[in-house]
Amino acid sequence: MNAQKLSKRLAMVASFVPQDAVVADIGSDHAYLPCYLVHNNIAKSAVAGEVVDGPYQSACQEVKHEQLQDKIIVRLADGMDAIEKEDGVTAVTIAGMGGPLIASILNKDLSRLTTVERLILQPNIHAISIRQWAQQHGWAIIDEEILEEDDKIYEVLVLERGQQHLSPAELLIGPKLIDKRNDVFIEKWTREITQWQHILASLEKADNTEAIKTKKEELMSKITLVKEVL
């Protein structure tokens, strides 16, 4: 993977960036995504944010190597602190983190989202945290995709401002993904059910404390929700 050819996962994220957007890529690593977006005339300009010095230096080197210093700003900053008002950011991408971490990054300073029209988020796990955040903060899920790469399954969520009430199944599984129900979706949730059933079986052997009873009820509820969708 490089700035000219993205991984399948990042290419999916890039596909949802609006034409002529000003993009902030939070946790940009090597800045491959913003470089790709600018090179391909999708983004007018970009900010690559990194909180760790090593990846920050890598991003700086990549932007210099691609000769995009006039279009891409690399900032060493914690999460959304990479975005400044003067940037006029219209789209934010956050990829390759857990859902709860992505939600906490967005939540830290909501004022940084003032000019943002679209969020493109790719959680590695627990996408439910992002859907819950969206519902609580006036963002609606306009699209979702699920894909498999290198034996790992990834989800991409696309959010724009709006009110949306999601059912428990939609929060857990994804409203747009439920509609599409592709082969990767079936594979992911079939695996999840199997894993939950294994955990349930092991809990049956444990002391029936209140905590164990609650956990069992939670797992059985999830299994029921997913089976109804599948």
UniProtKB/TrEMBL annotation:
Example GO BP: methylation
A Pfam family reported for this protein in Swiss-Prot or TrEMBL: TrmK
Gene Ontology terms, MF aspect: tRNA (adenine(22)-N1)-methyltransferase activity
Entry keywords, A to Z: Methyltransferase, Transferase
Origin superkingdom: Bacteria
Signal sequence residues: none
Alphabetized PANTHER family for the sequence: TRNA (ADENINE(22)-N(1))-METHYLTRANSFERASE
UniProt protein name: tRNA (Adenine(22)-N(1))-methyltransferase TrmK
Native source organism of the sequence: Kurthia sibirica
